[in-house]
Amino acid sequence: MTAGDQSHAGPPAKPARIDRRLEAPHRRSGSSPRIVERTALLAYRATSWVLATVPPKPAAAIIGRVAQASYVLWPTKRRWSNRNFANVLGLPPDHRRVRIAALGAYMGYGRYLVELMRLPTLPPDAIARLIPTLDVDEVRAIWEGSPGGLIMTVGHVGSNEAVAAAIAHHGMPISVVADDSSFPEIYEILRRQREGWGVKLIPWRNLREIFGVLRRREILGLLVDWGYRPDGIHVRLFGEWTTLPAGPAILAAKTRSLILPITIRRQPDDTFHVSWPAPIEVPSSDPLDLQRATQAVADALASTIAAAPDQWYSFKPIWPSTAEEAADLARRASLMQGNNADPGPAREFG
To answer: Per DSSP, which regions of 44-198 are E strands?
Structure first.
C-alpha cells in the first residue's frame, strides 16, 4: 500500500536494474505463469504437511540451510542482502561480519517459515500464548483513543502473524494488507487460515476496503520494509537515505488514524516480546507532515532491526542502488525543508 511521494522535486535518478524476483509486489507487473502458480501451490501444500508433522527443530534447521544456500548461490540476492546488512552494521558490504549477519538472518528465516507453516494447526488461544508480553489493555486504550482507526506498522521481524492473531483473540478487529498478485491460490489459503484466527486479509490493491477499515475505526496492519522504490517518502534509515511507503502516513492523515510502530523480538523460549513507542499523529496531508511521520516510522523500524539484526528477514533491496540516487533523495529532503543543509556524505556503492 503505497502512494506517490508528494515532496518530489525534479526527476529522480534512474534506478539501477534489479532482479525482478526481488521486487516488492507493487513494482511487479503481470502475474506468474499458470504452471508456476500450480507448482508453487503444490509445493506449499506439501511443505505445510511435512512441517506440520516433522519435529520443528530439525525442520527449521533444514529449511534454514536451504535459505542459506539461496544466499550463497543467488548472486543478486546475496549482493542486496550484503548491502542491507552493511548499512545496518555500518560496515562495507564485503566485510566478514556482514556475511555472518546475513547468513544468520537466513537461518532465522528458515525457523520463521517452519513456525508460519505450523501456525494453522494451532488453536487461536495457543497462538496468543506466543505473545505473552502483549499489553492488551494498552493496545485497546490506544486504539479506542484514536480519532480514527489504528495503523500498526511492522517490519519483517519476528512473527507478525502471531501478533495479529493475538490481537484478534482479545476481541479487537484487525485487518492485514497482503500481496495477492503473485500466487492467488496460496493467498486464498492464507486468507481462510487467517479468518480462522479472526484476522482479515485485504489485497494490497483494494484501496476501498483499506480505507474502509480505518473509517470503521478498526486496526490495520501494514508492512513497511517491502523494498526501496524511488517514489516513496524519503527518510534516513541507519543514517542513509532511502524511502519508505507513503501509504501509512497518507492513510493516517486522511482518516485521522494514529500510527503505532510495533517492535517484535524473538525470545530464547521462542515466544515473542512486543513493544511500541508513542503513537504517531499525522495532522494533515501536507508533505512535511507526511515526511515527519514516515521518518518516525523509519526510526522505529531501525530500532527494531538494530536490537536483533539476525531476526530481520527482509531480503529485498531496502536502500537505493547508487550514490546518485541517494544524493537525489538528500536533495529532495533539503528542498522540502527549505534549506541548503549538508545532506551528508554519499556512501560507496559497489
So the answer is: 150-154, 174-178
- The neighbour count for residue 137, using CB atoms within 10 Å, is 9
E strand map for the chain? 150-154, 174-178, 199-203, 219-223, 233-237, 240-244, 258-261, 263-266, 272-275
Q: Other C-beta atoms within 10 Å of 31: how many? A: 12
- The confidence score (pLDDT) of residue 4 equals 37
Question: Which set of grid coordinates corresponds to residue 86?
Answer: 552493511
Q: Are the C-beta atoms of residues 137 and 181 closer than 8 Å to each other? A: no
Nearest Cα to Cα of residue 44 among 203, 187, 196, 186: 186
CA-CA distance, 314 to 48, in Å (whole number)? Answer: 22
Q: How far apart are CA 313 and CA 70, in angstroms?
A: 13
Strand 263-266 versus strand 272-275 pairing type: antiparallel
| 3-state secondary structure (DSSP) of residue 178 | strand
The DSSP symbol for 130 reads T
* Gyration radius (Cα) of the chain, Å: 20
Report the pLDDT averaged over residues 36-56.
73
- Chain-centroid distance of CA 256 in Å reads 23
User: Which pLDDT belongs to residue 32?
Assistant: 52
Highest mean pLDDT among 109-113, 116-120, 212-216: 212-216
**Single pTM value for the model:** 0.83
Q: Residue 325 has which C-alpha cell? A: 540516487
Do residues 127 and 115 lie in contact, with contact meaning Cβ atoms separated by under 8 Å? no
Specify whether the CB–CB gap between 246 and 290 falls below 8 A: yes
User: Which element (helix H / strand E) includes 37?
Assistant: helix 34-53
Q: How far apart are alpha carbons 322 and 89 in whole angstroms? A: 19
Amino acid at 269: D
* β partners of residue 175: 200, 220
Please name which of 273, 280, 340 lies closest in space to residue 308, comparing C-alpha atoms.
273
Print the SS3 string covering 67-92. HHHHHHHCHHHHHHHHHHHHHHHCCC
The 8-class DSSP code of residue 310 comes to: G
